[in-house]
Design a protein that fits this description.
binds zinc ion; alpha/beta; seven-stranded parallel β-sheet; globular
């Protein structure tokens, strides 16, 4: 269904496109002011008749457009503008800081019609010379486009799962295939996948090549293939090549060796163990299982996700890594009180269905006005509702939390009298994300030292493939969390996975407590805890390292014990 955000976005785009095509500025302005109106309205506009829209302060003309949009999925003004805008020019408007007027200048003066041409022109120093641009803007554009194009065929782990399991099952069903295994980055649960790799055991390579070349969802890349490796791409919805695919073929007796060699990081394979590395051991015989490979190197069995040459060779026995079934509750979630899609009760019921014992609500705080953050008054209203629901849902419990914004100077954005009414506080940065290492670290340290902070939320603010996180002095931040009894979040949203797994082992070794938090904005988001579990496993976390493996009773004691006031 059409949301108010969809309407705002479409109106903003219409205004920008009018600027781009040099149309009447008053007409463009009427769309911008409608956006301003819409953002103040909380009820869904798409369901309302015209007279009600007008009574909410929307003009007659704009009300008709909302109705047209709700019925047809578009409206004439926008559609006409889109039809006469080249795709590349439209894409340029998605670059941060480039609105309709700036893109018009680039298009008119430099005849730039795509992101690639824009990058070239920036690199040649031409953009800085256009009125209203300058060196700084030019540099910011280069940085953003380079970051985007470097990630062009990469995918979030969560988005590759469906492709991976489909391909695996399709290949398993081919008669001449004896075994199939996913390998490479996917098997190691890397947060970003740039190539999906599989290994097949078969005696009939030709038949497999024929199948892969003809399979409707694949696009072959014969130039990059060889008799032992089929390479190509997955076909996306537009029938264009997207994710890179590699299928290695091997004789059945070499299958285990081949899968193993293709699943671990290079440095894991080449690390020396009393005179021999795992690659050399692979050459001595054909193994029946990966356990045997490790045992012949006098090592405990190491699961694929930790084969990174990070900490795994210090282990003296196979670790019992955290599992989804160890989780007993979910902390850090949103509801319709701020920018979530489901009510408190709906979210709580979904947790009950998942057999969890508690649900931590952490709606946005008052500074996050763009996310409908809670004023002090609304905090108290929510608390009253929680108390009511807790009577109804017992023994299940909703814990009163908040995702409090960390302000520029590291303060939290409520006074102490309000902060002390919560069961726990997740402190997160949502604004001014471009601080340098020193400033960003100092800002977080201040928040960590705040006695009301229970959990440090998404520590770097990164959005994988979209936005780099701010730089941090990780050892300093982690040490401060330990010293102040602050739990570190593993934000389980597949776009974040923040704290990064590369720092999890360090955190654990210093005695830090971690929490796997889905940051769910709707019921479906609660399932993201699974990706947090994968991240925690990759960092070597066991059940005892994770806060939300505690039972309700244990976590209530924990929250009282660490209530330092
Ligand atoms: Zn957040
Ligand atoms: Zn959040």
């Amino acid at each position: 269904m059409l949301t108010n955000d969809d309407i705002s976005a479409a109106f903003k785009l219409t205004a920008s496109l009018m600027d781009l095509h040099g149309e009447n500025p008053f007409k463009a302005k009427s769309f911008s002011s409608a956006v301003y109106q819409i953002e103040k309205i909380e009820t869904n506009l798409a369901e309302k008749p015209k007279n009600e829209l007008i009574s909410l302060g929307i003009s007659d003309g704009m009300a008709s457009k909302i109705i047209e949009f709700a019925q047809k999925g578009t409206f004439a003004d926008l559609q006409q503008l889109l039809d006469k805008t080249p795709k590349g020019v439209l894409e340029m408007m998605s670059v941060k800081g480039l609105g309709g007027k700036k893109v018009k200048a680039l298009w008119d003066e430099l005849k730039i019609e795509s992101i690639y041409e824009l990058l070239e022109a920036c690199n040649a120093g031409k953009v800085a010379q256009i009125k209203g641009f300058g060196e700084k803007t030019q540099e910011a554009i280069i940085k953003e486009i380079s970051f985007r194009t470097a990630n062009v065929d990469k995918m979030h782990y969560a988005d590759t799962e469906e492709i991976a399991f489909l391909l695996e099952s399709v290949l398993k069903n081919i008669q001449v295939v004896e075994s199939v295994s996913l390998s490479g980055q996917f098997r190691r649960r890397m947060e970003i996948i740039d190539e999906l790799q599989l290994v097949i055991a078969t005696k009939n390579f030709d038949a497999i090549f024929q199948f892969l070349n003809g399979y409707e969802k694949l696009i072959p890349n014969p130039k990059m293939s060889n008799p032992f490796a089929w390479r190509g791409f997955w076909k996306n919805e537009d029938n264009m090549p997207s994710l890179k695919i590699e299928v290695k073929l091997t004789q059945p007796q070499s299958f285990v060796n081949q899968v193993f060699a293709n699943s671990a990081a290079e440095s894991h394979l080449t690390r020396n163990h009393s005179g021999k590395n795992l690659l050399q051991i692979l050459k001595t015989q054909k193994f029946q299982s990966e356990q045997e490979i490790y045992h012949s190197a006098n090592l405990p069995y190491l699961v694929p996700e930790i084969r990174e040459n990070l900490f795994e060779f210090d282990l003296t026995e196979e670790p019992k890594l955290i599992e989804m079934s160890d989780l007993r509750g979910s902390l850090h979630n949103h509801s319709t009180y701020s920018d979530g899609k489901n009510t408190l009760l709906q979210m709580a019921n979904a947790c009950i269905e998942m057999k969890l014992e508690y649900f931590g609500i952490c709606d946005h705080s008052q500074t996050a006005f763009y996310a409908n953050g809670l004023t002090e008054e609304r905090v108290l209203k929510q608390h009253a509702e929680i108390e009511q629901l807790n009577k109804q849902l017992a023994p299940f419990k909703i814990l009163k939390g908040i995702e409090s914004d960390i302000l520029n100077d590291g303060r939290l954005d409520y006074p102490d009298e309000i902060l002390k009414t919560f069961d726990f506080v997740v402190a997160s940065v949502h604004s001014n994300l471009r601080m340098d290492l020193e400033k960003a670290t100092t800002r977080l340290l201040k928040a960590i030292e705040n006695p009301y902070t229970t959990i440090l939320g998404h520590p770097t603010g990164r959005l994988l493939l979209r936005r780099e996180g701010y730089p941090l002095d990780f050892p300093k931040i982690i040490d401060a969390c330990v010293a102040n009894n602050v739990v570190i979040e593993i934000n389980a949203n597949p776009w974040r996975l923040d704290l990064d797994w590369r720092w999890i082992h360090y955190a654990i070794s210093k005695g830090a407590m971690l929490s796997i938090n889905p940051d769910a904005h709707e019921i479906a988001g609660l399932k993201d805890m699974y990706y947090g579990v994968l991240t925690a496993r990759k960092g070597g976390a066991v059940k005892a390292n994770i806060l939300n493996t505690m039972s309700l009773q244990e976590i209530e004691i924990f929250l009282i014990k660490f209530d330092k006031l």
